[in-house]
Structure formats: structure tokens, C-alpha cells
Amino acid sequence: MPQTETHTDQLSWRNAVGFACLLAFMYDVFYMGSNVILPVGTIGIERADMLAMLLGACLALIVFVENRKLRSVSTDVTANAVAGIVMAVAYAATVLFSNNTPLLLATDAVIGVGLAVGLTGWASRLASASPRLAADEVFLATGVAAALCFGTLCLPEGVARFVPIALPLVSFVLMVPARSAAVPTDMQEREDFSATMSTRIGAGIFFYGVSAGLMETFRANPDGPAAPLFAATAVILLLFCWAVLQSIWSDKPAERDAFGGMYRIALLVIMTGFLFQPVMTQSGVPGDTLVLAGFLGLCSCFVALFLATATVSGLDAPVLIARCFMAVFGGELAGIVIGNMFNTQNGTAITPYVAMATAGLFALIAYLFLFTDRSFGEMAVVVDDLDYADEARRRIIERSGLSARESEVFVLALRGHTNERIAQELYLAKSTVDTHLRRIYGKCGVHSRQELIDLAESEEQSLRTTTSR
């Protein structure tokens, strides 16, 4: 029996805060620690800790995508809870055994695996909302994560080092009562789309990751902070999320297409950092902090867009998000490797400028791959288009005074489902569905399914006309 695809109409703060805790933990282990150097012969590999985490995460995501039997992990609360506990314990081990580099890198790899499980787990839960609400929750979570990181940086070092231990635990505690995961009804369609996510989109995301990895290595100093001035990055990221949310929530006609343009805001932040790096080097907010903030904001854009695509098309959200982060993490890993190759030039005077220029070049290549792809453009506007239909249905339900069960039948009827299929998906008798539909027709003032569909289309067109004035 196919399972129903249901979407909640209310923003879940538990989802937003739970996902924020996972993101804050990821930002902490990636950017708020020290630059671990792995000696190899006469050279030292910088950001070895992040390399280990990225490698562990990439391997876990590859296994998740390629092994269908393991995909149930994303909806298994027990597996996600275990991942949260493992991450907390592994992080505590990195604090206690920071002088043992081999053990440190091994625990970092374990953290990477836990992050992969957590990201797919939250993808399945965020996808249970409508695309608009999922986007709200993603950007709320990113903003809250930035605020948590900034707050942690304001604490005494002895206290701040142990705060991240609680983050994955809180994340998975909040995951337990969160919305149930949405399960696609068409397995073949899901597999076909997951396997053919545009190569250009994947390449574009990968090259953005390469650019970010280069910048992360560029700013890391030997035996110094992994990302100096990350507090500034957190503030900029918080402001970015606030700007995007203001645009999404805006009722102004000129800003109704804000969701489709959110990635352009992130791109503007990134390119501003590259262009003004020479001028801002001696300031309190150097250009690389803008680049990193823009990159993290862009990652949130990717998550929101892929969740929207999965939700609208009935596809497997965890698999799409896994593929997205495979490209992101794989690109970052490659960028750190390239950055270390630059470091072997013995820190010549031009090395920083070559690294910055190369990172900017990869960002430009990513733009050419990603934002000239028609399918990505369609992904970017799908939420705005669907938002009109959702709002039209909501208004009809509210105006007609439909009950909760009648609202469920109403939505499925508008999607063209037969009475038999509605009965199957809602686990009702067909006669009960027939009764609900007759009541819906009466309350809405129509006499048939086609008139009901025409009513919804008329309401949607009215909304479009109103917002375009």
C-alpha cells in the first residue's frame, strides 16, 4: 500500500533548532578549532583534521547513496541517536587527546561519518514540510547555528571547548518528536532522478567546494586557529539568513520571487570577499571571512532547493541531500589538498595572492557550471510557483471551513488522485472518501471534481494577479 505524502502547514521550531544544533556542531569542528598539521616527510599537511572529517563524511555518503539497504538509516531514530552519541564521544576524545595526532585524525573521521548520518536524517524530516516551510526552517537553522557559534566564541576557552559535546546530543533529542519523514511513493521515479542529478549541477557544487577548501587553507596559520575571525563570519552569515528570511516572508510584489534569487545574495557576498580581499586584509573583517560566510549561506541555499525538488516531485530527499553534500565535501577536500600544494612553495610573497586568485577562478567556474544550467533555474523557481498553489488551497480551506480530514481529502483530490487512491493513502473506506468529497463540494459551492479544480486554479490566478500589481 503506498504511503501518503503529507506536508505540515506550520513551522516547526523543534526542527529548526535541532537542525541548527547539528550545523553549529559542524561549523565548530570545521572552523573553530586549531589548525592540525600532519607531518609527512619534510612537509606538513595543514587542516589534516578537516581532511579526515571530510573523508569520513564522503565515504559514508557514498555508501548511503549506493547501498539501498542502508538508506533506511536516514529515517531510523535509533541510528541517528547512536550517531549523535558517537559524535559527542568522538569530539570529547579530540579534546582529551589533542596531542596524539593519529588518534585525533581517527576520531575526526568518525565525526565525519556521524555528520553524514545526521545530515541525511534531518533531510528526511525537513522534507516532510511544504517547500516554503522547509526553506524557512533551513535558513532559521543556519542563522541559529551562526548565533550559537558566535555565543560559543564569547565564552571562556575552557568552557567553549566542551560546549560542542552537547550540540549533537541536543540535535538528536529534538529529532525524536520531530515530524515523521516523508516517504516517496514511486521508487522507480526516485531512483531515476537521484541517479541523474544534472552533472553540471554536481560539478558546479563541487567547484564551489574547491574554492572554499582553498580559502580555508589560505587563512589557516600553522599551530593557529583553523579559521581566524570566524566570529565575523558567523555575524555575516546570521545577517545573510535574516535577509533571506525577510525576502521569503515579504508580501511585497517585487520580492515574491525572493526564493529564486536567494543564491544570488550568497554569490554577491562571496564575490565581494574575493574582490576586496587586498583592501580588507588589514581590517577587522578581511575578505576571506565574507567568502566563507557566503559559502555557508550558499550551502543552505542548496539544501533548501534540493529539499524543494524532492518534496514537489516525491523523490528521496536524503539521497538528493547526500549527493549535494558529497559534491560539497568532495570539493572542499580537493581544495584543501590544492591549498597544501601551494603551501609547499615555502610561503613565497606571491603564494597568498595565487591561492586567492585560484579560489576566485574556481568560484567563477562553479558559477558557469551551476547558474547556466536550466534544471537548476527550474529548481530555483519551483518553490515560488508552488507557494501560490499552497496559498490558494489554504485560503479555500479556511474560507469553506473544511475539517482536518476534509482538508487532506481536498488536497489529494486537487492532485488528481482517484477516490480509490485517496482511500488507500489515508487508510479510509472508499465510501468514507465519497462522503467527504460530497461535503467538500457543498462547502465550496461546486458540484464536481473538475469544478473544484477550476476553483483552486481561479484562486491561484487571483493570487498571481494581486501580487504582480
From TrEMBL:
Coiled-coil residue windows: none
Location of the HTH luxR-type domain: 395-460
Cross-referenced InterPro entries: Sig_transdc_resp-reg_C-effctor, Tscrpt_reg_LuxR_C, WH-like_DNA-bd_sf
Signal peptide: none
GO MF entry, a single one: DNA binding
Gene3D superfamilies per record: Winged helix-like DNA-binding domain superfamily/Winged helix DNA-binding domain
The keyword Transport is assigned to this record: no
Pfam family, one: GerE
SUPFAM superfamilies (alphabetical): C-terminal effector domain of the bipartite response regulators
Record-linked PROSITE patterns: HTH_LUXR_1 (PS00622), HTH_LUXR_2 (PS50043)
Segments crossing the lipid bilayer: 12-30, 50-65, 77-97, 103-122, 134-153, 159-176, 197-215, 227-249, 261-278, 290-308, 320-338, 350-370
Gene Ontology annotations of biological process type: regulation of DNA-templated transcription
Keyword annotations: DNA-binding, Membrane, Transcription, Transcription regulation, Transmembrane, Transmembrane helix
Name the record gives this protein: Response regulator containing a CheY-like receiver domain and an HTH DNA-binding domain
Protein source organism: Slackia heliotrinireducens (strain ATCC 29202 / DSM 20476 / NCTC 11029 / RHS 1)
Lineage, uppermost ranks: Bacteria, Bacillati, Actinomycetota, Coriobacteriia, Eggerthellales
